[in-house]
Each structure stands twice: as structure tokens, then as C-alpha cells.
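I am writing to request your help with a piece of structural work I have in hand. I set the record out below, with my sincere thanks for your time.
___
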Amino acid sequence: MSSSWFLARRLLLWRQERRRLNRSAVIAVVGVAIGSAVLILSLSILNGFEAEVHDDLMRFEHQRVLLPRSSKADIETAAAALATAGISTRPYAERKLVVQSEADYRLVTARIVPDLTKHQAAFGESVIQQLPYRPLGHGVIIGSLLADRLGLLPGDEVRLISPLDISLADPRPPQLKVSVQAIYEFGILDFDDAYLFTDFPAAEKLVPRLAAYSGLSIEGIDNNWTERSLEILDGEKWELRTWETGHTDLLTAMKMEKLGSTVVLFLIILVASFNATSTMVMSVMEKYREIGILRSMGATGQFIRALFLRQGLLIGVVGVGVGVSFGVAVSLGQAAYHFIPGPQGLYAEGGLPMDLRWLDVLVVIVGALAMSLGAAWYPARTASSIAPGQAVNYEK
């Protein structure tokens, strides 16, 4: 260890007259450590919940959807053109329907998928009730809140009504009886209350001219495919919709929540830095004569300033090292072993979700060290301005 670091540590931590550690300095280190650990753990939890929401959205939503802007857009021609370019697609459609049970009725959004059984399997653990077999005839998958409102269980029969397809020739809206195949629960937004899923054979019997309301879902998440698909198809006839554009408010809210939490939790480190400032100011007063002796021995004001800046950096390095190490260990341990239970009814099997991101760790380290150096600036400036002769003759 260089002499400057030795002097910085000695001046900060050791009280010669009492021959013991400077408790205020230790408290400042502990404060920085606690703030760093809490910040790492909080960001990991927010990232974990964000990842859970993202995974649920990916099971529920299509990532890239091409929708026709005019009746001149032909689905089959577009799918063939994209397939020639190596871009895989599948049919997609969405329609407002009324679902009616013996107890009540509800206006919902129907997502129409090619294969209902495969789509149900993609929901994974989000399916909370299901039939052990596929019912005869047509089926639907509905959300848990919608099932509660309509008093439905898997196997019950409901009636789908398409009020938007009333014609002058037949004023009665098209209707179709279907069976509830499964009930899902995502617990985000209004998915569990406002959506149901059915397949194209059922929808084609219910909705005339279904192709006019259909689109294409791009398979995979390659952004190059998205750009190429817009180049291949006529942009005036087709519109690209992504899951991000459909949930801009939710994504913005999660980003603002993370930013706000980061700012608020950094206040813990800021308070610890104020404590470090007061500790080093007291250190300057207690070591007034020692600083004067150093100045009389030839130490420059810049050297004295560097000593106290090193004290602030020492508080930051030790505090951040301990706090970040603890936070990283708990986050990685929770991700691997799930020893912290999650909220009751949510993430019961996986426990509290945590997702450690190294960029967050870097932000915490840099921010905490910057605050620690900032806390040392005023005491360092004060110490560097001490006159040698006055300090040597100073009586405590």
C-alpha cells in the first residue's frame, strides 16, 4: 500500500487519543453498504417482475402482426410472397364477439388462432383449469375473470354471437354454440376478463368474410424479417403492429417505476454520503495539527486534498464492495434456488422473481462511488487550505 493510501486510512479510521476505530467512519461505510445492497435487490426484483410480465405477454400476444389496411390486400398472396422470401407466417384474426351463458353475457375480444390445442399448450402454467380431452365440436379458451362473471367451468357450453355481422337479409346476428375447453389466468391488464380464444373453423362458421378481418403473424423475432416483410409487401396496403406498440402505456409505466425506484433508493446512499461528509469534517478538526505537520514537512495542498478524496473513495469502495456483493449473492441465489417465497397466489412455484442485470450493478457501483467522492470534496478542500504554521501551534 502506498504511503498516501496508508495516511488516508489512518486519518479516517483511527483515533490516536482513544486508540480505537472511528465509529462514525464505520457507520458511513455501513450506510453505503446497506444502500448499495437494497438498490441491487430492488432492481433485481423489478427486473424479475418485468421479465414475468414480458413472458406472459409473449405467451398471450403475437410479436409481429401484419394487418391489411384495405380490402385490396390479399392474405394468401401476401403469405405466398413472404414464404418465397423465407419468412414464415401463420393466419391471425381478431374480432369483437358477445359470449353468452345461462347466467349472463359479455362483450369480449376473440383471438382466432390456427390450432386451439397448440395455443393452449403454449400458455403453460397460465392454464388453471382444462378438460382432459378436446370436446366434440368447437371450443374456446377463456380467462378466469370472464369465467367467474359468466359462471363457467371447463366443459360448459356457451353461445358466441357476432353483433357486427348483421345483414339486411337476416337481421339476426350469427350465433354458434361452443364448449369451454380451458380457463387461463395471466393476472395482468384485462386479459383474464376481456379475451377469449377460438380457432378458424369455428370463427369461419360465425363470422362471414372472416378473411377480410384477418392478418398474418410473423413467426420468430428476427427484426430483419420485419423489415424485409415491409419491403416485400405494399406498405400502403399493410400495417405492421408489434406487441410493444400495443402495450406502450404498460412498458412506459414499468420503465418509470424502475427509474423512480432507482432515484429514491439512491437517496439511501446519498444520506450515507452526508454522514461520510460530517465524519471527514470532524476528522479534519481532530487531525488539524497532524495536517499542519504534514504541510510543514513539504506536503502540498494538492497532496492533502488527495488524502481526503481517498478517504471518501475508501468509504465508497468498502461500502459498495460489501453491499453489492451481498445483493448480487442474494439475487443469484434466489434465481437459482428460489428460497424467498413470492406474493401469495403469484409465482408460487418459482418464488419471488429476481433478474440480476450487470448493467444495473455497474450503475450502482459508479453512482455510489461518485457520491462518496462528492461527499469528500468539501472536507478535502477545507483540509488543503490549512496553513502549516497556524496548524502546528493549534491547541485542541
In short: The CA atoms of residues 99 and 160 lie 5 Å apart. Residues 248-286 form the longest helix (39 residues). DSSP finds 14 helices and twelve strands in the chain.
